[in-house]
Write a structure and sequence with these properties.
Layout (H helix, E strand, L loop, with lengths): L1 H23 L14 H37 L14 H30 L9 E7 L2 E6 L4 E4 L1 E5 L4 E7 L4 E4 L6 E4 L5 E5 L5 E7 L11 E7 L1 H12 L8 H13 L38 E2 L4 E2 L2 H9 L1 H4 L12 H12 L3
Parallel strand pairs: 1-5, 4-10
Antiparallel strand pairs: 1-2, 2-3, 5-8, 6-7, 6-9, 9-10, 11-12
Helix pairs in contact: 2-3, 5-8, 6-8
The chain binds copper (II) ion.
């Protein structure tokens, strides 16, 4: 009996060790809440850390008491009959009522204060509003102050408080950038607010955190945190009319785009209406991601593929094969036409 117990322990302990090492690896993941890069995420990590140590304390107390009880029972195994029966121990009952109440209050006070603190949008964020719209299965970012629209890559300047007005056009989504903080539902017909600030430049992965349909797992995006100069350059490039393509292949691609794609996708200066995106209004080409400056994007198809001509051609040829559930149809183009569209789009930068 005792030998089989040891055998089980011999399997269990290394398994726990491997699980521990695996969890320790979480902190270096690119989308980890344990590696915050802004004040909201830091505030939230403080709460996570505080709650974690309280729970570790409870876990340790339970295991120590359990160990003591087992040890005591083990030493007394020769005893026959029932142990002394006690009932109505007031001191014990008060202790195991008061201690959990104290623990719950200790968790409740910082939880409520953090929730309210991060919920107050700072005045500076009012100067920088972005409308975030969840779609099955991609994210639209509208900058009403600048009159620009982009998809799946949210550009913000470093050190700037950003006010995100989050909504959805179809089902419930959830906007989440683990390293910058917050996780807010995107609901159709309702606008939720979330503010963020990034302390360091870089690229921060985001993900839809609410199951929204078949393509949910492929509904990723990036927050690109630029220096103020880089951000201004990006804004200027987004406001420009798309350059006329030079190569014959890209020219053919533009024609094919206008024949096959522009009823769903807008490009500044190419499809009418692309320059007047106003929140809450439908404009020509607003069904799918706005493709202005497409060549600058690092990811495509909800950030499932890196943006290369070959990947783009693969995506155009059969969107369902790349991202099951995607609403983009197969256009029935032949390979040379697909390559032409890819060449045209990759040249937009
Ligand atoms: Cu979603």
């Amino acid at each position: 009996m005792q030998r089989s117990r040891w055998r089980r322990l011999r399997v269990l302990l290394p398994a726990l060790g491997v699980a521990g090492l695996g969890l320790a690896g979480c902190s270096s993941a690119p989308a980890s809440v344990l590696d915050p890069a802004g004040p909201v995420a830091k505030d939230e990590l403080n709460l996570i850390t505080f709650s974690f140590w309280i729970m570790m304390f409870v876990l340790a107390a339970v295991f120590i008491l359990l160990g003591m009880a087992l040890w005591k029972a083990h030493r007394q195994k020769q005893r026959e009959g029932l142990p002394p029966q006690t009932e109505g121990n007031n001191r014990l009952e008060i202790t195991w009522t008061v201690i959990p109440v104290i623990i719950v209050i200790a968790l409740m006070v910082p939880s409520i204060s953090t929730t309210f603190r991060v919920g107050v949008v700072p005045a500076q964020a009012k100067d920088f509003q972005v409308t975030v719209i969840g779609h099955q299965y991609w994210w639209e970012f509208q900058y009403p102050g600048e009159g620009i629209v982009t998809a799946d890559e949210l550009h913000i300047p470093v050190g700037q408080e950003v006010d995100l007005e989050i909504t959805s056009t179809d089902v419930m989504h959830s906007f989440w950038v683990p390293r910058l903080g917050g996780k807010v539902e995107a609901l159709p017909g309702h606008v939720n607010q979330l503010w963020l600030k990034a302390d360091k430049t870089g690229v921060y992965p985001g993900q839809c955190a609410q199951f929204c349909g078949t393509g949910h797992a492929d509904m990723a995006f990036k927050v690109v945190v630029d220096t103020p100069q880089q951000y201004q350059q990006w804004v200027a490039s987004m406001k420009q009319t798309a350059a006329t393509p030079v190569s014959a292949q890209a020219q053919q691609g533009k024609q094919l785009f206008q024949q096959n794609c522009q009823s769903c996708h807008a490009i500044n200066g190419v499809s009418q209406g692309a320059q007047i995106p106003v929140y809450g209004t439908e404009y020509k080409g607003s069904m799918g991601p706005n493709l202005t400056n497409f060549g600058l994007h690092t990811g495509i198809a909800g950030d499932t593929l890196s943006n290369t001509p070959a990947n783009l051609a693969q995506w155009i040829a059969d969107p369902q094969a790349v991202k099951p559930g995607a609403t983009m149809p197969r256009l029935g183009l032949n390979q040379s036409q697909i390559n032409a569209v890819a060449a045209y789009l990759e040249g937009l930068k």
